[in-house]
Specification:
heterodimer; A: mainly beta; B: mainly beta
Chain lengths: ~120, ~110
């Protein structure tokens, strides 16, 4: 069974940093493209970032480009999201997602998410 | 990359059909077959119900179907059931390993 378990969320002041992690199991992590998707409660899904299998390709939504960094550890099967210069509008539940099909383009397996709160 | 445009809400009675539209641009829906739809029940994580515009993952009922014309994708749910009441999101590849979601549509089964 595929499991994705996020951790690292919490409350931070504007301008602060957080590092999210996602522990993966039940599939061959090193062969899977991975994504981060965020969702404010009661609002829609927003794609945040994508990383390919060997970290040679990373992409970001315009709203987080230059502030967030995605990475992965294919030995420990963990996905990371380093979030710097956090803003109020970054507050959301962050989901770790396993992608499938061509370059992981479909969001097949979702973690339950970790909540990030940004407030002064 | 702007979000894809979906109606905020749709509704239908049990047994009826509803269609949810998703409008993008030539840079996303209009240029790729990588269009998918996700169903999200309250308090649950999203579930993919359509991929490659019109394909259903194993286990998704045939009542769910997808299509695309130009820059607009559509999800049709026939034979509405109470359990179909959920939020639905369209999603498209936009090139350069960028993905864009729609704003979501709340389906109410009357």
């Amino acid at each position: 069974e595929v499991q994705l378990v996020e951790a690292g969320g919490g409350s931070v002041h504007p301008g602060g940093s957080l590092r999210l992690s996602c522990a993966a199991s039940g599939f061959v992590f090193r062969s899977s493209w991975m994504h981060w998707v965020r969702q404010v409660q009661g609002q829609g899904l927003v794609w945040v970032s994508t990383i390919n299998t060997d970290e040679t390709t990373t992409t970001y939504a315009d709203s987080v480009e230059g502030r967030f960094t995605v990475s992965r550890d294919n030995v420990r099967d963990i996905l990371f999201l380093q979030m710097d210069s956090l803003r109020a509008e970054d507050a959301a539940v962050y989901h770790c997602v396993r992608g499938t099909s061509d370059f992981g383009v479909y969001f097949e397996n979702w973690g339950r998410g970790t909540l990030v709160t940004v407030s002064s | 990359h702007s979000a894809l445009t979906q109606p905020r809400s749709v509704s239908g009675s049990p047994g009826q059909s509803v269609t949810i539209s998703c409008t993008g641009t030539r840079s996303d829906i209009g240029n790729y077959v990588y269009v998918s739809w996700y169903q999200q029940h309250p308090g649950k994580v999203p579930k993919v119900i359509i991929f490659d515009v019109d394909k259903r993952p194993s286990g998704v009922p045939h009542r769910f179907s997808g299509s695309k014309s130009g820059n607009t994708a559509s999800l049709t749910i026939s034979g509405l059931q109470s359990d179909d009441e959920a939020d639905y999101y369209c999603c498209s590849y936009a090139g350069g390993y960028i993905t864009v979601f729609g704003g979501g549509t709340k389906l109410t089964v009357l």
